[in-house]
Design brief:
alpha/beta; 12 strands; five-stranded parallel β-sheet; three-stranded antiparallel β-sheet; 434 Repressor (Amino-terminal Domain)
Protein backbone atom coordinates (compact mmCIF):
# COMPACT_ATOMS: atom_id res chain seq x y z
CA UNK A 1 0.00 0.00 0.00
CA UNK A 2 1.17 3.55 -0.79
CA UNK A 3 1.49 5.71 2.31
CA UNK A 4 2.71 9.17 3.26
CA UNK A 5 5.11 10.41 5.88
CA UNK A 6 2.21 11.97 7.80
CA UNK A 7 0.40 8.61 7.85
CA UNK A 8 3.55 6.93 9.13
CA UNK A 9 3.95 9.64 11.78
CA UNK A 10 0.36 9.24 12.98
CA UNK A 11 0.68 5.45 13.02
CA UNK A 12 3.86 5.48 15.12
CA UNK A 13 2.38 8.01 17.55
CA UNK A 14 -0.86 5.98 17.91
CA UNK A 15 0.91 2.65 18.47
CA UNK A 16 3.34 4.20 20.97
CA UNK A 17 0.55 5.77 23.04
CA UNK A 18 -1.50 2.58 22.98
CA UNK A 19 1.44 0.81 24.60
CA UNK A 20 1.81 3.52 27.22
CA UNK A 21 5.34 4.47 26.15
CA UNK A 22 6.84 7.94 26.25
CA UNK A 23 9.05 9.04 23.38
CA UNK A 24 12.06 8.69 25.65
CA UNK A 25 11.03 5.22 26.80
CA UNK A 26 10.54 4.07 23.21
CA UNK A 27 13.92 5.49 22.18
CA UNK A 28 15.58 3.59 25.04
CA UNK A 29 13.68 0.36 24.35
CA UNK A 30 14.89 -0.42 20.86
CA UNK A 31 18.22 -2.08 20.21
CA UNK A 32 20.49 -0.27 19.81
CA UNK A 33 18.83 2.67 21.66
CA UNK A 34 18.31 5.95 19.83
CA UNK A 35 17.70 9.58 20.79
CA UNK A 36 14.27 10.86 21.85
CA UNK A 37 14.48 13.58 19.19
CA UNK A 38 14.53 10.86 16.51
CA UNK A 39 11.13 9.67 17.73
CA UNK A 40 9.85 13.24 18.04
CA UNK A 41 10.89 14.20 14.50
CA UNK A 42 9.33 11.02 13.13
CA UNK A 43 6.03 11.62 14.94
CA UNK A 44 5.96 15.22 13.75
CA UNK A 45 6.45 14.02 10.17
CA UNK A 46 9.62 16.04 9.88
CA UNK A 47 12.25 13.35 9.28
CA UNK A 48 12.42 9.60 8.66
CA UNK A 49 15.06 7.80 10.77
CA UNK A 50 17.77 5.68 9.18
CA UNK A 51 16.33 2.43 7.77
CA UNK A 52 17.64 0.20 10.58
CA UNK A 53 16.34 2.55 13.28
CA UNK A 54 12.92 2.87 11.61
CA UNK A 55 12.68 -0.91 11.26
CA UNK A 56 13.49 -1.49 14.94
CA UNK A 57 10.98 1.17 16.04
CA UNK A 58 8.17 -0.30 13.97
CA UNK A 59 8.94 -3.90 14.90
CA UNK A 60 9.08 -2.97 18.59
CA UNK A 61 5.65 -1.36 18.29
CA UNK A 62 4.32 -4.26 16.15
CA UNK A 63 3.28 -1.92 13.34
CA UNK A 64 2.27 -3.84 10.17
CA UNK A 65 5.03 -3.69 7.58
CA UNK A 66 2.72 -2.19 4.94
CA UNK A 67 2.90 1.12 6.85
CA UNK A 68 6.69 1.44 6.81
CA UNK A 69 8.43 -0.94 4.40
CA UNK A 70 8.66 1.49 1.52
CA UNK A 71 10.47 4.01 3.75
CA UNK A 72 13.42 1.64 3.96
CA UNK A 73 14.28 2.47 0.32
CA UNK A 74 16.33 5.63 -0.15
CA UNK A 75 14.30 6.91 -3.12
CA UNK A 76 11.01 6.40 -1.31
CA UNK A 77 12.31 7.92 1.91
CA UNK A 78 13.57 10.99 0.10
CA UNK A 79 10.34 11.31 -1.89
CA UNK A 80 8.22 11.04 1.30
CA UNK A 81 10.24 13.72 3.11
CA UNK A 82 10.15 15.99 0.05
CA UNK A 83 6.41 15.47 -0.28
CA UNK A 84 5.84 16.25 3.39
CA UNK A 85 7.85 19.48 3.23
CA UNK A 86 6.15 20.49 -0.02
CA UNK A 87 2.79 19.97 1.71
CA UNK A 88 3.81 22.50 4.35
CA UNK A 89 4.69 25.00 1.64
CA UNK A 90 1.39 24.55 -0.20
CA UNK A 91 -0.76 24.37 2.90
CA UNK A 92 -2.52 21.01 2.50
CA UNK A 93 -1.51 17.32 2.34
CA UNK A 94 -0.03 16.20 -0.98
CA UNK A 95 0.35 12.66 -2.27
CA UNK A 96 1.23 10.74 -5.41
CA UNK A 97 -1.24 7.98 -4.42
CA UNK A 98 -3.78 8.83 -7.12
CA UNK A 99 -1.19 8.34 -9.89
CA UNK A 100 -0.40 5.00 -11.49
CA UNK A 101 2.72 3.21 -10.32
CA UNK A 102 4.76 4.12 -13.43
CA UNK A 103 3.97 7.83 -13.02
CA UNK A 104 4.75 7.67 -9.31
CA UNK A 105 8.12 6.16 -10.18
CA UNK A 106 8.81 8.96 -12.66
CA UNK A 107 7.95 11.59 -10.04
CA UNK A 108 10.24 9.98 -7.46
CA UNK A 109 13.06 9.91 -9.99
CA UNK A 110 12.55 13.59 -10.63
CA UNK A 111 12.67 14.29 -6.89
CA UNK A 112 15.95 12.36 -6.74
CA UNK A 113 17.28 14.50 -9.59
CA UNK A 114 16.41 17.67 -7.65
CA UNK A 115 17.62 16.89 -4.11
CA UNK A 116 21.38 16.98 -3.89
CA UNK A 117 21.86 17.60 -7.61
CA UNK A 118 24.42 20.11 -8.82
CA UNK A 119 21.96 22.39 -10.67
CA UNK A 120 21.94 26.10 -11.38
CA UNK A 121 19.27 28.28 -9.84
CA UNK A 122 17.37 28.35 -13.14
CA UNK A 123 17.59 24.58 -13.56
CA UNK A 124 16.43 24.12 -9.97
CA UNK A 125 13.41 26.36 -10.58
CA UNK A 126 12.45 24.50 -13.76
CA UNK A 127 12.73 21.08 -12.10
CA UNK A 128 10.80 22.16 -9.02
CA UNK A 129 8.05 23.77 -11.10
CA UNK A 130 7.76 20.60 -13.17
CA UNK A 131 7.40 18.49 -10.03
CA UNK A 132 4.41 20.55 -8.89
CA UNK A 133 2.48 19.21 -11.89
CA UNK A 134 2.51 15.69 -10.44
CA UNK A 135 0.74 17.01 -7.32
CA UNK A 136 -1.73 19.22 -9.18
CA UNK A 137 -0.33 22.33 -7.51
CA UNK A 138 -0.50 25.88 -8.89
CA UNK A 139 2.91 26.67 -10.49
CA UNK A 140 5.13 28.91 -8.42
CA UNK A 141 6.14 32.22 -9.96
CA UNK A 142 9.81 32.91 -10.62
CA UNK A 143 9.77 35.94 -8.35
CA UNK A 144 8.27 34.05 -5.39
CA UNK A 145 10.71 31.16 -5.90
CA UNK A 146 13.67 33.54 -6.00
CA UNK A 147 12.61 35.22 -2.77
CA UNK A 148 12.80 32.05 -0.70
CA UNK A 149 14.62 29.37 -2.74
CA UNK A 150 17.75 28.78 -4.81
CA UNK A 151 19.89 25.81 -5.78
CA UNK A 152 21.30 25.56 -2.22
CA UNK A 153 17.77 25.13 -0.87
CA UNK A 154 17.69 21.66 -2.44
CA UNK A 155 21.11 20.37 -1.46
CA UNK A 156 19.42 18.28 1.24
CA UNK A 157 15.90 17.71 2.55
CA UNK A 158 16.93 19.71 5.63
CA UNK A 159 17.94 22.74 3.54
CA UNK A 160 14.60 22.52 1.70
CA UNK A 161 12.82 22.45 5.06
CA UNK A 162 14.80 25.49 6.24
CA UNK A 163 13.75 27.49 3.17
CA UNK A 164 10.12 26.49 3.64
CA UNK A 165 10.33 27.59 7.29
CA UNK A 166 11.54 31.04 6.20
CA UNK A 167 8.58 31.26 3.87
CA UNK A 168 6.16 30.11 6.58
CA UNK A 169 7.58 32.66 9.03
CA UNK A 170 6.46 35.39 6.65
CA UNK A 171 3.22 33.72 5.57
CA UNK A 172 1.92 33.18 9.11
CA UNK A 173 2.12 36.94 9.74
CA UNK A 174 -0.14 37.85 6.82
CA UNK A 175 -2.51 35.00 6.00
CA UNK A 176 -5.17 32.86 7.70
CA UNK A 177 -3.77 29.62 6.29
CA UNK A 178 -0.71 28.51 4.33
CA UNK A 179 -3.05 27.44 1.54
CA UNK A 180 -4.33 31.00 1.21
CA UNK A 181 -0.75 32.30 1.36
CA UNK A 182 0.46 30.06 -1.47
CA UNK A 183 -2.57 30.70 -3.68
CA UNK A 184 -2.11 34.44 -3.28
CA UNK A 185 1.65 34.68 -3.57
CA UNK A 186 2.28 32.02 -6.24
CA UNK A 187 -0.20 33.62 -8.61
CA UNK A 188 0.97 37.20 -8.03
CA UNK A 189 3.18 38.69 -10.78
CA UNK A 190 4.97 40.59 -8.02
CA UNK A 191 4.51 38.91 -4.61
CA UNK A 192 6.62 41.60 -2.97
CA UNK A 193 3.57 43.87 -3.13
CA UNK A 194 1.78 41.49 -0.75
CA UNK A 195 4.84 41.28 1.49
CA UNK A 196 5.48 45.01 1.91
CA UNK A 197 4.05 44.84 5.43
CA UNK A 198 7.05 42.71 6.43
CA UNK A 199 9.73 45.17 5.36
CA UNK A 200 11.77 47.09 7.92
CA UNK A 201 10.74 50.72 8.35
CA UNK A 202 12.76 53.81 9.00
CA UNK A 203 11.99 55.71 12.20
CA UNK A 204 13.24 58.98 10.75
CA UNK A 205 9.73 60.41 10.44
CA UNK A 206 9.30 60.07 14.20
CA UNK A 207 12.67 61.64 14.93
CA UNK A 208 11.88 64.63 12.69
CA UNK A 209 8.72 65.50 14.61
CA UNK A 210 8.53 68.44 16.96
CA UNK A 211 8.94 67.63 20.64
CA UNK A 212 5.59 66.97 22.27
CA UNK A 213 5.46 69.10 25.40
CA UNK A 214 1.79 70.09 25.53
CA UNK A 215 1.01 67.78 28.45
CA UNK A 216 1.68 69.37 31.85
CA UNK A 217 2.56 66.84 34.52
CA UNK A 218 0.20 66.50 37.46
CA UNK A 219 2.45 66.15 40.54
CA UNK A 220 2.49 62.59 41.89
CA UNK A 221 1.15 63.66 45.28
CA UNK A 222 -1.93 65.17 43.57
CA UNK A 223 -2.74 62.23 41.30
CA UNK A 224 -5.31 60.77 43.74
CA UNK A 225 -7.36 63.96 43.21
CA UNK A 226 -8.20 62.64 39.75
CA UNK A 227 -9.92 59.62 41.26
CA UNK A 228 -12.66 61.87 42.65
CA UNK A 229 -15.71 63.37 41.03
CA UNK A 230 -15.60 67.11 40.42
CA UNK A 231 -14.44 69.15 43.42
CA UNK A 232 -17.70 71.13 43.32
CA UNK A 233 -19.72 67.94 43.77
CA UNK A 234 -17.48 66.81 46.62
CA UNK A 235 -18.20 70.13 48.34
CA UNK A 236 -21.97 69.54 48.05
CA UNK A 237 -21.59 66.10 49.64
CA UNK A 238 -19.71 67.35 52.69
CA UNK A 239 -22.65 66.85 55.06
CA UNK A 240 -23.12 63.21 54.06
CA UNK A 241 -19.38 62.63 54.12
CA UNK A 242 -19.25 64.07 57.64
CA UNK A 243 -22.02 61.68 58.71
CA UNK A 244 -20.35 58.52 57.49
CA UNK A 245 -16.88 59.65 58.61
CA UNK A 246 -18.10 60.34 62.16
CA UNK A 247 -19.89 56.98 62.21
CA UNK A 248 -16.72 55.11 61.17
CA UNK A 249 -14.61 56.81 63.84
CA UNK A 250 -17.13 56.03 66.59
CA UNK A 251 -17.43 52.44 65.40
CA UNK A 252 -13.64 52.06 65.48
CA UNK A 253 -13.54 53.34 69.06
CA UNK A 254 -16.34 50.97 70.14
CA UNK A 255 -14.66 47.96 68.53
CA UNK A 256 -11.44 48.78 70.37
CA UNK A 257 -13.41 48.91 73.59
CA UNK A 258 -15.83 45.98 73.29
CA UNK A 259 -14.91 44.02 70.15
CA UNK A 260 -17.52 42.53 67.83
CA UNK A 261 -20.35 43.34 70.23
CA UNK A 262 -20.12 46.94 68.97
CA UNK A 263 -21.56 45.84 65.61
CA UNK A 264 -24.55 44.14 67.23
CA UNK A 265 -25.52 47.34 69.03
CA UNK A 266 -26.22 49.21 65.76
CA UNK A 267 -29.86 49.30 64.61
CA UNK A 268 -30.92 47.76 61.30
CA UNK A 269 -32.00 51.19 59.99
CA UNK A 270 -28.60 52.70 60.78
CA UNK A 271 -26.83 49.75 59.17
CA UNK A 272 -28.70 50.19 55.88
CA UNK A 273 -28.02 53.91 55.80
CA UNK A 274 -24.30 53.61 56.52
CA UNK A 275 -23.84 50.78 54.03
CA UNK A 276 -25.57 52.90 51.37
CA UNK A 277 -23.33 55.88 52.07
CA UNK A 278 -20.22 53.70 52.01
CA UNK A 279 -21.20 52.28 48.62
CA UNK A 280 -21.74 55.83 47.36
CA UNK A 281 -18.41 57.24 48.49
CA UNK A 282 -16.27 54.12 48.33
CA UNK A 283 -17.69 51.88 45.55
CA UNK A 284 -14.47 49.85 45.40
CA UNK A 285 -14.94 48.77 49.03
CA UNK A 286 -15.14 45.03 49.61
CA UNK A 287 -17.67 43.57 52.01
CA UNK A 288 -20.49 45.35 53.82
CA UNK A 289 -19.60 46.51 57.31
CA UNK A 290 -22.12 44.05 58.62
CA UNK A 291 -21.50 40.98 56.50
CA UNK A 292 -20.01 37.85 58.04
CA UNK A 293 -16.86 38.44 55.97
CA UNK A 294 -16.22 41.91 57.44
CA UNK A 295 -12.97 42.16 59.40
CA UNK A 296 -13.38 44.37 62.48
CA UNK A 297 -10.30 46.52 61.98
CA UNK A 298 -10.43 49.85 63.86
CA UNK A 299 -7.31 51.25 62.19
CA UNK A 300 -8.75 50.57 58.74
CA UNK A 301 -12.08 52.16 59.71
CA UNK A 302 -10.26 55.32 60.81
CA UNK A 303 -8.29 55.42 57.55
CA UNK A 304 -11.54 54.99 55.64
CA UNK A 305 -13.03 57.85 57.65
CA UNK A 306 -10.10 60.09 56.63
CA UNK A 307 -10.49 59.09 52.99
CA UNK A 308 -14.26 59.59 52.80
CA UNK A 309 -14.60 62.49 55.23
CA UNK A 310 -15.41 66.08 54.27
CA UNK A 311 -12.66 68.02 52.56
CA UNK A 312 -11.15 71.26 53.76
CA UNK A 313 -11.42 74.26 51.48
CA UNK A 314 -7.69 74.09 50.79
CA UNK A 315 -8.09 70.44 49.72
CA UNK A 316 -11.05 71.27 47.52
CA UNK A 317 -9.15 74.14 45.90
CA UNK A 318 -6.17 71.88 45.19
CA UNK A 319 -8.48 69.17 43.85
CA UNK A 320 -10.22 71.65 41.53
CA UNK A 321 -6.86 72.96 40.26
CA UNK A 322 -5.57 69.42 39.64
CA UNK A 323 -8.73 68.44 37.77
CA UNK A 324 -8.59 71.64 35.69
CA UNK A 325 -4.98 70.90 34.71
CA UNK A 326 -5.94 67.33 33.74
CA UNK A 327 -8.85 68.69 31.67
CA UNK A 328 -6.42 70.93 29.80
CA UNK A 329 -4.26 67.87 29.19
CA UNK A 330 -7.32 66.06 27.84
CA UNK A 331 -7.89 68.85 25.34
CA UNK A 332 -4.31 68.41 24.13
CA UNK A 333 -4.73 64.64 23.88
CA UNK A 334 -7.90 65.06 21.83
CA UNK A 335 -6.28 67.53 19.44
CA UNK A 336 -2.86 65.87 19.20
CA UNK A 337 -1.29 65.85 15.73
CA UNK A 338 -0.57 62.12 16.12
CA UNK A 339 -1.48 59.44 18.66
CA UNK A 340 1.01 56.58 18.69
CA UNK A 341 0.53 54.70 21.96
CA UNK A 342 -2.53 54.14 24.10
CA UNK A 343 -2.03 53.00 27.70
CA UNK A 344 -4.91 50.82 28.89
CA UNK A 345 -5.27 50.52 32.64
CA UNK A 346 -7.75 50.52 35.50
CA UNK A 347 -7.21 52.96 38.36
CA UNK A 348 -9.17 52.24 41.50
CA UNK A 349 -6.65 53.07 44.23
CA UNK A 350 -4.06 55.76 44.87
CA UNK A 351 -1.39 53.12 44.25
CA UNK A 352 -2.79 52.47 40.76
CA UNK A 353 -2.41 56.13 39.77
CA UNK A 354 1.16 56.24 41.00
CA UNK A 355 2.15 52.86 39.55
CA UNK A 356 0.83 53.69 36.08
CA UNK A 357 2.27 57.20 35.99
CA UNK A 358 5.75 56.10 37.10
CA UNK A 359 5.77 53.35 34.48
CA UNK A 360 4.68 55.70 31.69
CA UNK A 361 7.23 58.36 32.65
CA UNK A 362 10.07 55.83 32.83
CA UNK A 363 9.07 54.19 29.56
CA UNK A 364 8.78 57.30 27.41
CA UNK A 365 11.96 58.84 28.83
CA UNK A 366 13.89 55.65 27.99
CA UNK A 367 16.87 56.20 25.69
CA UNK A 368 15.35 54.02 22.95
CA UNK A 369 11.94 55.66 23.03
CA UNK A 370 12.47 59.34 23.91
CA UNK A 371 14.19 60.31 20.59
CA UNK A 372 11.14 59.05 18.66
CA UNK A 373 8.95 61.91 19.91
CA UNK A 374 5.98 59.62 20.38
CA UNK A 375 2.54 60.93 21.26
CA UNK A 376 1.08 58.74 24.00
CA UNK A 377 -2.08 58.83 26.08
CA UNK A 378 -1.28 58.70 29.79
CA UNK A 379 -4.64 58.17 31.57
CA UNK A 380 -3.24 59.42 34.90
CA UNK A 381 -2.80 62.90 33.38
CA UNK A 382 -6.31 63.21 31.95
CA UNK A 383 -9.68 63.83 33.62
CA UNK A 384 -13.31 64.35 32.69
CA UNK A 385 -16.34 64.25 34.99
CA UNK A 386 -18.66 62.19 32.78
CA UNK A 387 -18.41 58.42 32.35
CA UNK A 388 -19.93 58.48 28.86
CA UNK A 389 -17.54 61.15 27.63
CA UNK A 390 -14.69 59.24 29.28
CA UNK A 391 -15.67 56.14 27.31
CA UNK A 392 -15.72 58.12 24.06
CA UNK A 393 -12.29 59.61 24.82
CA UNK A 394 -10.82 56.16 25.36
CA UNK A 395 -12.49 54.80 22.21
CA UNK A 396 -10.99 57.61 20.13
CA UNK A 397 -7.53 57.24 21.66
CA UNK A 398 -7.67 53.49 21.06
CA UNK A 399 -8.72 53.98 17.46
CA UNK A 400 -6.01 56.52 16.69
CA UNK A 401 -3.12 54.75 18.43
CA UNK A 402 -1.02 52.32 16.42
CA UNK A 403 0.08 50.46 19.57
CA UNK A 404 -1.60 49.64 22.89
CA UNK A 405 0.11 48.96 26.22
CA UNK A 406 -2.05 46.96 28.64
CA UNK A 407 -1.07 47.45 32.27
CA UNK A 408 -1.60 44.12 34.03
CA UNK A 409 -2.52 44.65 37.66
CA UNK A 410 -3.44 42.19 40.39
CA UNK A 411 -7.03 42.34 39.16
CA UNK A 412 -8.13 43.52 35.74
CA UNK A 413 -11.42 44.93 34.49
CA UNK A 414 -13.78 44.17 31.66
CA UNK A 415 -13.17 47.63 30.20
CA UNK A 416 -9.41 47.19 30.03
CA UNK A 417 -9.73 43.69 28.57
CA UNK A 418 -12.15 45.04 25.96
CA UNK A 419 -9.72 47.76 24.94
CA UNK A 420 -6.93 45.24 24.39
CA UNK A 421 -9.28 42.96 22.42
CA UNK A 422 -10.37 45.83 20.19
CA UNK A 423 -6.75 46.75 19.45
CA UNK A 424 -5.85 43.14 18.62
CA UNK A 425 -8.94 42.85 16.44
CA UNK A 426 -7.79 45.89 14.48
CA UNK A 427 -4.50 44.12 13.79
CA UNK A 428 -2.49 46.42 16.07
CA UNK A 429 0.28 45.27 18.43
CA UNK A 430 -0.60 44.98 22.12
CA UNK A 431 2.10 44.87 24.79
CA UNK A 432 1.01 43.56 28.19
CA UNK A 433 3.24 44.86 30.96
CA UNK A 434 3.33 42.62 34.05
CA UNK A 435 5.35 43.88 37.06
CA UNK A 436 7.89 41.65 38.80
CA UNK A 437 9.96 41.65 41.97
CA UNK A 438 13.54 42.79 41.40
CA UNK A 439 16.06 43.22 44.25
CA UNK A 440 19.48 43.19 42.64
CA UNK A 441 21.54 43.02 45.81
CA UNK A 442 19.69 39.80 46.74
CA UNK A 443 19.95 38.35 43.22
CA UNK A 444 16.18 38.44 42.94
CA UNK A 445 14.47 38.79 39.58
CA UNK A 446 11.34 36.65 39.69
CA UNK A 447 11.10 36.40 35.90
CA UNK A 448 14.63 34.93 35.72
CA UNK A 449 14.13 32.67 38.74
CA UNK A 450 10.98 31.16 37.21
CA UNK A 451 12.97 30.19 34.12
CA UNK A 452 15.61 28.29 36.09
CA UNK A 453 15.53 24.48 35.84
CA UNK A 454 13.93 22.73 38.79
CA UNK A 455 17.22 21.09 39.74
CA UNK A 456 19.02 24.46 39.83
CA UNK A 457 16.38 25.91 42.15
CA UNK A 458 16.81 22.94 44.49
CA UNK A 459 20.57 23.45 44.53
CA UNK A 460 20.18 27.14 45.44
CA UNK A 461 17.69 26.33 48.20
CA UNK A 462 19.98 23.63 49.60
CA UNK A 463 22.96 25.98 49.66
CA UNK A 464 21.15 29.04 51.08
CA UNK A 465 18.37 27.62 53.25
CA UNK A 466 18.12 25.73 56.50
CA UNK A 467 17.59 22.01 56.98
CA UNK A 468 13.81 22.54 56.99
CA UNK A 469 13.97 24.17 53.56
CA UNK A 470 15.50 21.09 51.95
CA UNK A 471 12.51 18.76 52.08
CA UNK A 472 11.22 18.20 48.55
CA UNK A 473 8.78 15.80 46.96
CA UNK A 474 7.08 15.60 43.58
CA UNK A 475 4.20 17.81 44.71
CA UNK A 476 6.54 20.80 45.15
CA UNK A 477 6.16 22.58 41.82
CA UNK A 478 8.21 25.34 40.18
CA UNK A 479 6.25 28.13 41.82
CA UNK A 480 6.67 26.62 45.28
CA UNK A 481 10.43 26.30 44.75
CA UNK A 482 10.73 29.91 43.61
CA UNK A 483 8.60 31.02 46.55
CA UNK A 484 10.84 29.17 48.97
CA UNK A 485 14.00 30.70 47.49
CA UNK A 486 12.46 34.19 47.59
CA UNK A 487 11.50 33.71 51.23
CA UNK A 488 15.02 32.60 52.14
CA UNK A 489 16.65 35.59 50.46
CA UNK A 490 14.17 38.22 51.70
CA UNK A 491 14.10 36.85 55.25
CA UNK A 492 17.87 37.24 55.55
CA UNK A 493 17.98 40.64 53.83
CA UNK A 494 19.35 43.65 55.75
CA UNK A 495 16.62 46.04 56.93
CA UNK A 496 17.64 48.80 54.53
CA UNK A 497 17.46 46.39 51.56
CA UNK A 498 13.98 45.20 52.54
CA UNK A 499 12.83 48.78 53.06
CA UNK A 500 14.19 49.77 49.63
CA UNK A 501 12.37 46.83 48.04
CA UNK A 502 9.11 48.04 49.56
CA UNK A 503 9.66 51.62 48.36
CA UNK A 504 10.41 50.37 44.85
CA UNK A 505 7.45 48.00 44.59
CA UNK A 506 4.67 49.27 46.87
CA UNK A 507 2.65 50.94 44.10
CA UNK A 508 2.94 48.14 41.51
CA UNK A 509 2.19 45.54 44.20
CA UNK A 510 -0.45 47.70 45.95
CA UNK A 511 1.05 46.75 49.30
CA UNK A 512 -1.61 48.66 51.24
CA UNK A 513 -4.20 46.44 49.61
CA UNK A 514 -2.36 43.33 50.84
CA UNK A 515 -2.92 44.20 54.51
CA UNK A 516 -5.68 41.60 54.89
CA UNK A 517 -3.06 38.86 54.66
CA UNK A 518 -2.11 39.78 58.25
CA UNK A 519 -4.59 38.14 60.61
CA UNK A 520 -3.70 39.96 63.81
CA UNK A 521 -5.50 43.33 63.83
CA UNK A 522 -2.79 45.10 65.83
CA UNK A 523 -0.03 43.80 63.57
CA UNK A 524 -2.08 44.87 60.57
CA UNK A 525 -2.23 48.41 61.95
CA UNK A 526 1.55 48.36 62.54
CA UNK A 527 2.06 47.20 58.97
CA UNK A 528 0.05 50.15 57.56
CA UNK A 529 1.77 52.60 59.91
CA UNK A 530 5.20 51.37 58.81
CA UNK A 531 4.22 51.70 55.13
CA UNK A 532 3.13 55.27 55.85
CA UNK A 533 6.45 56.06 57.51
CA UNK A 534 8.68 54.83 54.67
CA UNK A 535 6.47 55.70 51.68
CA UNK A 536 4.49 58.80 52.59
CA UNK A 537 6.73 60.31 55.24
CA UNK A 538 10.11 59.09 53.87
CA UNK A 539 11.44 58.01 57.27
CA UNK A 540 14.20 55.37 56.97
CA UNK A 541 12.64 53.04 59.55
CA UNK A 542 13.38 49.32 59.70
CA UNK A 543 10.29 47.09 59.58
CA UNK A 544 9.15 46.24 63.13
CA UNK A 545 10.00 42.69 64.16
CA UNK A 546 6.29 41.94 64.66
CA UNK A 547 5.52 42.43 60.97
CA UNK A 548 8.80 41.46 59.28
CA UNK A 549 7.79 37.90 58.48
CA UNK A 550 4.38 39.04 57.28
CA UNK A 551 6.01 41.67 55.06
CA UNK A 552 8.26 39.05 53.46
CA UNK A 553 5.28 36.75 52.98
CA UNK A 554 3.30 39.54 51.29
CA UNK A 555 6.15 40.40 48.92
CA UNK A 556 6.61 36.74 47.98
CA UNK A 557 2.89 36.03 47.53
CA UNK A 558 2.33 39.12 45.39
CA UNK A 559 5.42 38.45 43.26
CA UNK A 560 4.28 34.87 42.63
CA UNK A 561 0.83 36.12 41.72
CA UNK A 562 2.32 38.37 39.03
CA UNK A 563 4.41 35.46 37.73
CA UNK A 564 1.23 33.42 37.37
CA UNK A 565 -0.39 36.33 35.58
CA UNK A 566 2.52 36.61 33.15
CA UNK A 567 2.35 32.89 32.42
CA UNK A 568 -1.42 33.07 31.90
CA UNK A 569 -1.07 36.01 29.52
CA UNK A 570 1.54 34.15 27.49
CA UNK A 571 -0.26 30.82 27.43
CA UNK A 572 -3.96 30.68 28.29
CA UNK A 573 -5.53 34.12 28.76
CA UNK A 574 -8.47 34.91 26.41
CA UNK A 575 -6.50 37.96 25.27
CA UNK A 576 -3.53 35.84 24.25
CA UNK A 577 -4.84 35.62 20.67
CA UNK A 578 -7.59 37.53 18.89
CA UNK A 579 -8.68 37.35 15.27
CA UNK A 580 -7.90 40.41 13.16
CA UNK A 581 -11.38 41.24 11.89
CA UNK A 582 -10.31 42.37 8.41
CA UNK A 583 -8.15 39.35 7.58
CA UNK A 584 -8.92 36.45 9.93
CA UNK A 585 -5.26 36.26 10.97
CA UNK A 586 -4.67 35.50 14.66
CA UNK A 587 -2.96 38.38 16.48
CA UNK A 588 -1.23 37.69 19.80
CA UNK A 589 -0.05 39.86 22.68
CA UNK A 590 3.56 40.59 23.66
CA UNK A 591 4.26 40.14 27.38
CA UNK A 592 6.88 42.54 28.76
CA UNK A 593 8.25 42.34 32.31
CA UNK A 594 10.35 45.51 32.56
CA UNK A 595 10.57 49.05 31.23
CA UNK A 596 13.66 48.00 29.25
CA UNK A 597 11.80 45.11 27.62
CA UNK A 598 8.80 47.30 26.85
CA UNK A 599 11.00 50.04 25.34
CA UNK A 600 12.83 47.50 23.16
CA UNK A 601 9.51 46.12 21.92
CA UNK A 602 8.18 49.58 21.05
CA UNK A 603 11.40 50.42 19.20
CA UNK A 604 11.30 47.13 17.27
CA UNK A 605 7.58 47.39 16.49
CA UNK A 606 7.88 50.88 15.05
CA UNK A 607 10.80 49.73 12.89
CA UNK A 608 9.07 46.42 12.08
CA UNK A 609 12.11 44.52 13.34
CA UNK A 610 10.79 42.14 16.00
CA UNK A 611 12.99 39.07 16.52
CA UNK A 612 10.60 36.29 15.44
CA UNK A 613 10.98 32.53 15.33
CA UNK A 614 8.65 29.91 13.85
CA UNK A 615 7.96 27.05 16.26
CA UNK A 616 6.06 23.95 15.25
CA UNK A 617 4.39 21.35 17.45
CA UNK A 618 1.77 18.68 16.94
CA UNK A 619 -1.10 21.19 16.95
CA UNK A 620 0.11 24.54 15.64
CA UNK A 621 2.59 26.68 13.76
CA UNK A 622 3.43 29.50 16.19
CA UNK A 623 5.38 32.67 15.48
CA UNK A 624 7.15 33.61 18.71
CA UNK A 625 8.84 36.87 19.69
CA UNK A 626 12.14 35.54 21.03
CA UNK A 627 13.00 37.98 23.83
CA UNK A 628 9.62 37.66 25.57
CA UNK A 629 8.63 34.14 24.45
CA UNK A 630 5.30 35.61 23.34
CA UNK A 631 3.23 34.01 20.59
CA UNK A 632 2.04 36.69 18.16
CA UNK A 633 0.73 34.59 15.25
CA UNK A 634 -0.72 31.08 14.93
CA UNK A 635 -1.88 28.81 12.14
CA UNK A 636 -3.63 25.69 13.41
CA UNK A 637 -2.90 22.22 12.08
CA UNK A 638 -6.54 21.26 12.69
CA UNK A 639 -7.58 20.46 9.14
CA UNK A 640 -11.33 21.07 9.43
CA UNK A 641 -10.78 24.33 11.29
CA UNK A 642 -8.42 25.53 8.55
CA UNK A 643 -10.92 24.44 5.89
CA UNK A 644 -13.72 26.30 7.65
CA UNK A 645 -11.67 29.50 7.86
CA UNK A 646 -10.72 29.17 4.21
CA UNK A 647 -14.33 28.62 3.17
CA UNK A 648 -16.36 30.92 5.39
CA UNK A 649 -14.34 33.70 7.07
CA UNK A 650 -14.34 36.10 4.14
CA UNK A 651 -18.10 35.54 3.68
CA UNK A 652 -18.82 36.65 7.24
CA UNK A 653 -21.63 34.13 7.77
Amino acid sequence: MATTLQKLAETVRTFRKERGLSQLKLADSISPPTNRSVIAHLEQGRRVPDPDVLKHICLHLAIPSAYWEEFLLETDRRAAEFENTLSELIGFPLSLDSLDSATRGTAKSQIASLIGANLTDEQTYDTFRSLLVYYGVLPISRSLFSRYFNAKSFETIESFQDSVRKYQTDAVRLFRTFEEAYETLAAAPDPSMHLLALESRSDEAYRQRTKWNQIKDVPEKNLPDLGYIAAARVRKENAERETVSEFLRKLAARIRQSGLEALEQISEKKRRKMDSLLRKFDPASGHSLFSQLFLPDPDQLERKADQIGPKEETDLARMAATQRLAQENLANYLSADHLDVYVATSMRTDADFISVNRFVQNLFSHKLVEPLNLRYFNPTQSWIDDKFAKGLVEALMLRRASLTIYMAQKDDTFGKDSEASVALGQGKPVIVFVPKLVVQSLQIDTEILHRLPRQKLKQLINSEGSEDDREFDKTVDQEALVGRLLTIRLSTAPDDVLRRAVIDHWADFDLYGEDKRIEDVEHRAKYRAWLDSVIKDSYPEAPPAAIRDALVSILVATALRFERRARIFREVHPLALQVIISSGVLNGILVARSVQSCASLIYSILRNELDLELRIDELNYRLVEVSTESTIRVISKHRLLRNAFQAFYALGN
